[in-house]
Task: structure prediction
Amino acid sequence: MYPKTSLCVASVIALAAATAAHAQATTITIATVNNGDMIRMQGLTEDFTAKNPDIKLEWVTLEENVLRQRVTQDVAAKGGQFDVMTIGTYEVPIWGKQGWLVSLDDLPAEWDADDILPAIRGGLTVEGDLYAAPFYGESSMVMYRKDLMQAAGLEMPEAPTWEFIKQAAAAMTKKDKEVYGICLRGKAGWGENMAFLTAMANSFGAKWFDGEWKPQFDGEAWANTLNFYMDLMTNYGPPGASTNGFNENLSLFQQGKCGMWIDATVAASFVTNPKDSAVADRVGFALAPDNGLGKRGNWLWAWSLAIPAGSDATDAAKKFVAWATSKEYTRLVADKEGWANVPPGTRTSLYENPEYTKAASFADMTLASINTADPNRPTVDPVPYTGVQFVAIPEFAGIATQVGQEFSAALAGQQTVEQALGKAQALTADEMEAAGY
Result:
């Protein structure tokens, strides 16, 4: 037995060591979006903190539009409010070129950068440097109720047209039973309704700008796009659609209130999860629609983790980014939640894993949708910009948010399509001229 004095000294030493370790702990603040995969990640971070007891995590979880505003303000000012930010494929090349992000080319070799899908990695790379690590990648596709389609006497093609979508929406709508043929984004925002409408417009032959950077909202193609969208949503969509974004439509679909939903491929695991979805066993998938012009209405996106240049904890932040976007994290989710619920669309190895492809009925359609998106040639006619559901210029976010407000107001019945397009043309022209284009 040890003397009591020795025990006391040992206790004091242990307490001092623990206090010193606590004092030396690095806190990193993570700004992220309130999407299901991100919420799940927060719930699994005990795995990270157990392996990294010297790093403490603080979370700022925000709705998509609010997140974009907060992180943009902070990164531009190098405010240092966040150490890890969830940002998208639009921001990464612009911010990386501005020197606002920390290069991630020195992540550990076992992280395996070469395993990232080429289409996703290309959008996160600037002049050969990787500036963000993809947490999940996505395109967009049609998710539909197989039972309602069968009851309507129709069969969803693997590659549908917009006219078929309209026909099916009409046949599946039963408003007296609160079943609506189609649910689409209507909430204003450059990454909300304008993400969907820009991708849709590509398939109608529309474009944001011509070769001289002149706005094109006064053209026939945009009028055809917006009128078709309004017809779908007014006749076959849910009430209050002008306030529905990704999360609102996900909830409607899971409740069995949508015949079809055209949105991010990442939603597939949520609509087929029997824990959350009342229609989990009745969901089918198809490519985003086209009009026979050579372009489909599917986008390309990744929600990625990046480190702002203003962070004073870059080493700790890199450890977290590497953990959250690793193959090991994928296996952690698979062990806890099942293979169908792992973050999709980032790694080649995932789509070569038979456990995943067997569990995820949507895997092949997700990969096909990602691989068919073409950000370098997004439109039917040539344009001076890249990006499928966005235009890769710094001014786009502000302009598209204003345009999205006009289109959402038209959906809410506050103005006509013609008025919305006229305002979109005028405000875009003014903003581009002020920016020096």
